[in-house]
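Researcher: Structure for this, please.
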Amino acid sequence: MKFSTVILAGGRSQRMGRDKAMLNIDGKSLLTRQMDLVHQRGPEEIFISGRPGVNYAVPGCVVLHDGFADAGPLGGIERALGRVRSPLLLVLAVDMPEMAAEILDELASRCTDSRGAVPRVGGRCEPLAAFYPKAAWRIASSMLAADCKAATQFAERCVQSGLADFYEWDTSSAHHFTSWNRPADVRENFIRSGNGL
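Model: Predicted structure, token format:
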């Protein structure tokens, strides 16, 4: 199956106090960890949704800047959907360092060229680790034009329009979808996994 990938790395990281994409964990930045993960899945192209003025220094990747100001993750999704050559786009947030290859592979196996897959864990939608078809660009663009920036609502509209399906994951997988937003999140997750700091 042909697909492209966008790593959402353009957040302001205000709660973390520094750029999460460059946060170093076990010798790798969060951006490098996500890049390594998606490279192994064999995407046709990889985009980084980033902020102007930041050097992401990733050879072979195109850095995209949002077309809508202060649009949050949906701004990066919209921009990437408008650029992809592939029929599908894998969206992955940079701050989900515990995302696993088997989850992405399972999601990919549930897609077709015209229909994506969005995970739900314990009934909670996870729109930032999901596949969307290129046709979903119209939904993202119309939402942002109406100043609606909710990525969860975008995923729900994709499902309602027949462009994606929800797939349920057991709550035992919830940690794979955990976003690291604050310094305490880093510490808590390292302690839980037994890695220490």
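Researcher: Any notable elements?
Model: The first helix runs from residue 30 to 39. The chain is about 30% helix and 20% strand.
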